[in-house]
Amino acid sequence: MRVTLCFAGPILQFGRLGPSLMVNRHIVYVANAFYGLGVLFGLPSLAGTVFFGLAALRLYLAGPAASVTPASGGSNSGVDLILLAARAAGAVFGFIGAIGDAVVRGLAVASVAVLLLSLTLLFTGRGLHAHAGWARVVAGLMLTCLLLLGLLGLLSIQSRGLFAMLLTSASGYGLWALWRGFAS
Predict the structure, then answer these.
(1) Which residue has the higher pLDDT, 67 or 178?
(2) Which one of 93, 136, 163, 179 is most buried, by most CB atoms within 10 A?
(3) pLDDT for 70
(4) What's the CA gap between 167 and 144, in Å, rounded?
(5) Helix (H) or strand (E) holding 57
């Protein structure tokens, strides 16, 4: 009996019982890569979700600033000119504040999306360790998308082809491991 350690815990491999019960080591590598990427994306996105979510909640609860109405009903041109300039500056800063509010809310939504992706990666890695059928399908779809993105990057980017080549070869290896590991 041989014990292989992985992120999900030990996987027991019984070599004397036949080849159908053997765990393919390449599947373990791919599952551990899914775990590692899930943690790599999950921890920063969790921090971003908490930070930007609280910031968006604080901006939502603060509400807009109250507008000031002129106290005098007379026509004092100097005071009216100062009020007009102050309202114009307030409108400009209000617009800048609205842009900042939209950026914070957009970053909160992006952090939640990356957090969901990382949870998907973690559960897919766990499912690959358990040889679940749904995990094969999800991993195959993710790796096929990465393969297509890597090939597109190889075709379109001239100066940064190394990253696209690494992405293409890693996703190709993952697809090969899935095909080879679950074919028998």
Answers:
(1) 178
(2) 136
(3) 59
(4) 11
(5) helix 25-62
